[in-house]
Specification:
The chain has 472 residues and is mostly helical. The chain has a single domain, classed as Up-down Bundle (Growth Hormone, Chain: A). 74% of the residues lie in helices and 2% in strands. The chain has 20 helices and 3 strands. The protein has a two-stranded antiparallel sheet with strand order 1-2. A hairpin with a 2-residue loop joins strand 1 and strand 2. Helix 13 packs across helix 20, helix 16 runs parallel beside helix 18 and helix 17 crosses helix 20. The chain starts with 16 loop residues before the first helix and ends in a 13-residue tail after the last helix.
Length: 472
């Protein structure tokens, strides 16, 4: 879409400010999928040690149970674009909401380890769908001048979901007297932690009935009258709706339902722009950000912090995550995507290197020495802040913007799948790597953060302020 409260619309009139409020509501509702994405991804943090104890499993098996959801995420992300092109963005959101709900109930009431793993895969499929549909839908209903900030709603919702999951976990742990396997409402505490996700999942499903279908999809489906109504609600009745529809139709004339085959080309299998998307997604995960949200309680306990305090630090990290995301939302359209990514990469290198240094010291009486312990805590929060104010938001915004119209859905699906595969690699490997050498593990993450700097400088183009139809 091409109008904002100040930007010109087709026909030269400014968009009415009151319609921006409507767009914000639509965006926030769609971003509820991001909230569930963050909540479901991070809530497992409170259950890791309880699952290890209940099923008496080692680090390798535990990692697979935690990471198996990411396989579902990759499949959901890879297929969501095609599903959305076939049945619409809203129906796709509703399917994801059902998957989230079913997964929450199943994960809370498992009768075996494989059963828990299965329900995590189901929830992962919903997360993967939400990770693709949210940014794509928001990009299609957002005016260009505001698209970066509106696009960052997805990441804002993710980090709020992460923080709330940690707060809920902390509260449930208090009720259970600090015991992750303590009794809460007739279940073990960790089961209640996983089951609470039913509430936001139902809210997401209900909100999906309160927002309109994407105008681009409606026009693509031949429903011009409905598209005009949505455009009038979003951009104002003062615009020339026929001209606006014609503009979108003209941009779509060369488009077709994007397929995997459309992404092929060039000397390295995929077209170069697709590789850039894959690279952005991979670097976002290979810096080890999700270790901070899947395993932070386990990490802090491993260096001598008691369980209750470890949950508290997981929550404070999540608050820093929110603060960093707000900073990104403020500056992503003012400073641009590339500068934020570069600033964030430098900050992450510093934070990760300090963590690697702190973890290189031997434990004394089961704890890190005082100086190294405080450095590790501060550096962990520093790292999360610089990730949140840069790569956490910028990658989602870029993936919603950077691809040409004729391959956007399929390319976004492949890039998001790459993100989940990289996420899986980090999540599945961390427990074993940490058992081997925690400091060296953080050195690996530091190297990836450093490599992201030349990658951005050489391959990533700025998309700030450009209409979707200009991407090519």
């Amino acid at each position: 879409m091409s109008s904002t409260a100040q930007a010109p619309t087709p026909g030269g009139s400014p968009a009415a400010p009151e319609h921006l409020a409507h767009v914000i509501f639509i965006t926030a509702a769609a971003a509820m999928g991001g909230f569930l994405f963050g909540y479901d991804s991070s809530v497992i943090n409170g259950a890791v040690e309880a699952i290890r104890d209940r099923y008496d499993i080692g680090s390798g098996t535990l990692a697979q149970v935690i990471a198996v959801a990411l396989i579902g995420c990759a499949i959901g992300a890879a297929t969501a674009g095609r599903i959305a092109d076939r049945i619409g963005r809203i129906r796709c959101m509703q399917i994801a909401a059902v998957l989230f709900t079913v997964s929450a109930v199943g994960s809370a009431l498992p009768f075996a380890l494989w059963d828990l793993a299965f329900w995590r895969i189901v929830g992962g499929f919903g997360i993967g769908m939400a990770s693709v549909i949210g940014p794509a839908y928001i990009a299609e209903v957002s005016p260009p001048a505001y698209r970066g900030r509106l696009g960052s709603f997805q990441q804002a919702a993710i980090v709020i979901g992460i923080a709330l999951s940690q707060l809920v976990n902390y509260g449930i742990l208090q009720i259970a007297d600090g015991n992750q396997r303590g009794d809460v409402m007739g279940l073990e505490a960790w089961q209640v932690m996983l089951g609470v996700m039913v509430i936001p999942a139902v809210i997401y499903g209900l909100l999906s009935f309160a927002i309109p279908e994407s105008p681009r999809y409606l026009i693509h489906a031949g429903k011009d009258a409905k598209a005009k109504k949505v455009l009038a609600d979003v951009e104002g009745t003062h615009i020339d709706l026929d001209a606006r529809v014609a503009e979108i139709e003209h941009a779509m004339k060369s488009e077709h339902k994007s397929t995997f085959g459309d992404l092929l080309g060039g000397g390295f299998f995929f077209k170069p722009i697709v590789w850039v998307g894959i690279g952005l997604s991979a670097f976002q995960q290979l810096v080890g950000i999700n270790v901070a949200f899947y395993y932070s309680s386990t990490l802090w306990q491993s260096v001598g912090i008691d369980p209750t305090d470890s949950f508290l630090y997981s929550f404070t990290t999540s608050i820093i995550n929110i603060i960093g995301t707000v900073v990104a939302m403020i500056f992503v359209d003012r400073v641009g995507r590339r500068p934020l990514a570069l600033i964030g990469s430098v900050g992450m290198v510093i934070g990760l290197a300090l963590e690697a240094w702190a973890f290189s010291y031997d434990l004394v009486d089961g704890k890190l020495p005082a100086t190294q312990g405080w450095v590790a805590l501060v550096a962990a929060h520093w790292f999360v802040f610089f990730f949140a104010m840069s790569w956490g938001v910028v990658v989602w915004v870029l993936l919603g913007e950077m691809f040409p119209n004729n391959i956007r859905a399929a390319a976004l699906g492949v890039a998001a799948s790459a993100q989940w595969i990289a996420n899986w690699a980090i999540t599945a490997s961390f427990p074993s790597l940490a058992d081997w050498n925690l400091s060296a593990t953080y050195v690996i993450y530091t190297v990836f953060a450093a490599l992201s700097i030349p990658f951005v400088l050489k391959f990533v183009k700025e998309t700030k302020g450009k209409a979707l139809e200009e991407m090519g």
